[in-house]
Amino acid sequence: MGARDGELESLPESGPPVAEHSDTVSDGELLRWPKVDLHLHLVGSAAPDTVAELAGRHPGAGVPTDPAALRAFYAFRDFPHFIEVYTAVSGLVRAAADIEALVVGLGGDLLAQGVFYAEVTVTPVTHLRAGIRADELARALESGAARVRRDTGVELAWVYDISAGDGLSGARETLRVALDQPPVGLVGFGLGGSEAGVDRADYRDVFGQARAAGLRSVPHAGETAGPDQVWAAVRDLRADRVGHGIAAQRDPRLMGHLRDHGITLEVCPSSNVATGAVPELAAHPLKDLLAHGVPVTLGSDDPPMFATSLLEEYRRDRADPRSAQDVGENRHPVQLRPGPRPAPTDGRGTDALTPPRLGAASPTGGRSSPGWRVGACRASHRGAGPAGATCPPTRSHRGPRPGTTPRCGSSARVRDGAGPGRGKPTE
Ligand SMILES: [Zn+2]
């Protein structure tokens, strides 16, 4: 069933009216809001200076070394051109030390935006093909995350994703690496790259094995293709969250399904404009998704490539009066509301994923991070003051279904990680 306007309006308010904040919030307040970024890619997050430095080391890769030329290089004609550029930049990462440098640089960038937790997508097959071994990759991610935690307090977790361009053989290789040599903090299994001619359902078996091992399903879908890909991600890949998923706006029944099952879309507005998936921010489906009760979290995707950051996404969303108005009218303080007090530093209460016990017997010497298990937010927000009193602003505070106890949007899905641990793929 799709959302009905009257139904939405009848939902209890779960916090202060958003428009009051979004109309007046200052840049300083936006910066201080504790934020999580659940959709960003490690290579795509590399600051221009880092990319220029790597390009200088590898002049044959076709990536400019001059920052101004790099900006022009990041002007994408369309989505295939973006994939082409992204692949060229990925090719600059050729050693474990490059990986660790990317992680450390990202940590500083997140801290500067007030982001205290991020789930970062890594495409292991790309790095394997560049000569970095799977165990080296895992160790570099772990040591980078440890440095970031020590120096900034920012907590990082990982999503290993399949690049659709690598086909099913690449998918199986990604699965093998994820199960056999995971880094500490590996929480999710994803699928990215082009959607054209890549049916999400083709990856059902691989995702099934990843899920059986305790990893969460977070495929990209409905970024450049239609709602059928989002349906496939939900039904065939059993998505816990969907990367982008903005095509759901074209299918009210799908939006109702996402709402009713608490499946969050990781929406990255500036990315969608930069790749040509959406013509301009004013035409972005975010407002409609929110109006239909779809849980949404803002992500930055590949921020320097798209001349953005998570903080900038908040600013741009605030700058769109229609968005702010719609968010406020529908009591969906998913994005535009401050948390009255600092959020916990472990992602608890967000739409963050639960780390499985994959690292328990990892040959890399990994282990599950102590004190880091992200459980469901069990806070009841009825009569307990603003919802944000216990949760950071980026998680979903959808109104509850009539007659139910209001809970965080993530509470029904994200449980304490008790996956069966790492296991061998059966194929
Ligand atoms: Zn992405």
Report on the structure:
The structure is a single chain. The chain has 427 residues and is an alpha/beta fold. The protein has a single domain (27-336), classed as TIM Barrel, CATH 3.20.20.140. 38% of the residues lie in helices and 11% in strands. The chain has 17 helices and 9 strands. It has helices spanning 5-9, 18-24, 27-32, 48-57, 67-73, 79-90, 96-113, 124-129, 134-152, 167-180, 204-212, 227-235, 252-260, 269-274, 286-291, 310-319, 321-329, and strands at residues 35-41, 115-122, 155-163, 186-192, 216-217, 220-221, 241-244, 264-267, 296-298. The strands form 2 sheets. It has a 5-stranded parallel sheet with strand order 1-2-3-4-5. Strands 6-7-8-9 form a 4-stranded parallel sheet. Helix 12 (227-235) links the parallel strand 6 and strand 7 (241-244). Helix 2 (18-24) packs antiparallel against helix 17 (321-329) and helix 7 runs parallel beside helix 9 (134-152). The longest helix is centred in the middle third of the chain and has 19 residues, at 134-152. The radius of gyration is 20 Å and the shape is globular. The two termini are 38 Å apart. Zinc ion binds at residues 39, 41, 192, 220, 243, 301.
For this entry, give a set of tags.
4-stranded parallel beta sheet, TIM Barrel, 427 residues, 5-stranded parallel beta sheet, 17 helices, binds zinc ion, alpha/beta, disordered C terminus
Order of helices and strands: HHHEHHHHEHHEHEHEEHEHEHHEHH
CATH architecture assignment: Alpha-Beta Barrel
**Structure class:** alpha/beta
CATH topology: TIM Barrel
Distance between the termini: 38 Å
Query: Average pLDDT value?
Result: 73
Q: How large is the count of helical segments?
A: 17
* Largest sheet composition: 5 strands, parallel
Bound molecules: zinc ion
Globular, elongated, flat, extended or rod-shaped: what is the shape? globular
- Looking at CATH, the homologous superfamily is Metal-dependent hydrolases
Question: How many distinct domains?
Answer: 1
Taken as a percent bin, the fraction of beta residues is 5-15%
List low-confidence stretches. 1-22, 321-349, 355-427
Helical content band: 25-40%
Q: Output the strand order for the largest sheet.
A: 1-2-3-4-5
**Whole-angstrom Rg:** 20 Å
Beta strand count: 9
Per CATH, the class reads Alpha Beta
